[in-house]
């Protein structure tokens, strides 16, 4: 009988503890924040035709960290994991003028 009372006390103590853990455990994953972004764009010429194989470069103006990408067959490029900040982006391909923009 003494063993049964001890078991009931442990269970009564553990139940609220488990409920608290269950309630607050998901908070860490639900409210996680990220401090990076991605940039996707489309390169087209003056007629609206997509430009495939263009070299696109992006440079963080504060850190001078640069990344490069090449446009796909559909003319799209993508940069992932960019830190917040101001960037200079340029695109070039043979027989086209180089275009540069600051954001």
What does this entry look like structurally?
The chain has 103 residues and is an alpha+beta fold. It has 2 domains: 1-32, no CATH class; 37-102, Immunoglobulins (Immunoglobulin-like, Sandwich), CATH 2.60.40. Helix content is 26%, strand content 33%. The protein has 2 helices and 6 strands; from the N terminus they run ααββββββ. It has helices spanning 2-24, 27-30; strands at residues 37-42, 55-60, 66-70, 76-82, 87-92, 99-102. The strands form 2 sheets. The chain has a 4-stranded antiparallel beta sheet with strand order 3-2-5-6, with no helix packed on it. It has a two-stranded antiparallel sheet with strand order 1-4. The N and C termini lie far apart (75 Å).
Using brief descriptors, characterize the structure shown.
two-stranded antiparallel ribbon; alpha+beta; Immunoglobulin-like; four-stranded antiparallel beta sheet; 103 residues
């Amino acid at each position: 009988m003494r063993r049964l009372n001890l078991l009931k006390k442990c269970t009564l103590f553990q139940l609220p503890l488990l409920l608290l853990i269950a309630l607050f455990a998901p908070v860490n994953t639900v409210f996680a924040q990220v401090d990076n972004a991605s940039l996707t764009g489309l390169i087209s010429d003056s007629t609206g035709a997509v430009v495939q194989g263009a070299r696109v470069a992006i440079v963080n103006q504060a850190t001078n960290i640069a990344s490069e990408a090449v446009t796909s067959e559909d003319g799209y490029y993508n940069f992932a994991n960019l830190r917040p900040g101001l960037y200079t982006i340029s695109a070039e391909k043979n027989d086209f003028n180089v275009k540069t923009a600051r954001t």
